[in-house]
Specification:
single chain, 336 residues, alpha/beta, Rossmann fold, 2 domains, 6-stranded parallel sheet, 12 strands, 17% strand, globular, EC 2.-.-.-
Amino acid sequence: MMNMTPPQSICILRFSAIGDVCHAVSVVQAIQRQYPNAKITWVIGKIEAMLVGDIDNVEFIIFDKKTGLKGYSDLRKKLKNRQFDILLHMQVALRASIASLCIKATQRWGFDKTRAKEGQWLFTNHKIKPQSQPHVLDGFMAFAEAIGVPVAPPQWNIPLSTQDNLWAHSQLSHEKKNFIICPSASNAERNWSTKGYAEIANYMHDNNYQVSICGGPTDSEKQLAKDIIQIATAPINNLVGDTSLKQLLAILKHADLVLAPDTGPAHMSTTVGTPIIGLYAHSNPGRTGPYNNLNDVAEVYHQHLPNSEWGQRAKGADLMESISIAAVKNKLARFI
């Protein structure tokens, strides 16, 4: 941690994805607690802003990567006459580094050279300290520590409206505990088996939980939900495609337990304090798992890559099939 004059203006650069933005919220709010008078601006993705874009006392500037060169032009125009004390460049993708050229800042913080992939180190003039095998959230929190924020357990406060909370209440059981399955990851190969999800739905129903399935509006997510419901014998409340990101967050907040693969809702659950059983085969759960439930992950990552480098991904279309139903039931058992 460096000794420094309290900054007056801080720009956060982190576009995506939902899970990483959830991690970044804890960093932003830690900075706010340490520097309540600092003006914070967050350059963020369009979809991600739908979840966190109403956080108190943060200015959000949307960078829409789908618009190509226009996205950079729009960002440059919005920030043309702005100068920040500090830029926290928290995304190593080259497109983010190019976007950082639109942001004028005295201190430009990036990852240490080992982690500053895709040439990120060329776009910064300060580096956070190297870390040994950090969780992604801890890697982000090192940015806050570098500018004088004391290390502390992460906290989150993502606003939810009365309407979103009431809607969630209307969808959930008031006689039973509520178990949520978010079965679909952004990459289909990170989804668990349809049979596995169905068997777990039956198991949780037998243990007096109402089972709901949540997910986005894509055809693949809707089809996966239909396939699970068709195989399962338990009644399942299908909310796939029916929730905004805020409504999904409210559902997760008022649930008792969540099951999900390596996907954004797993980390959304963490932000609202709901226990989550993660399903991991392709990425190291110690690095990308649900932060407060790392011991509750059903994983075969280390089975497939026993001597992996910390950030290495396991490859293979059928790796998730290696996660047994018994292993998932074992993780669920302590919460039932």
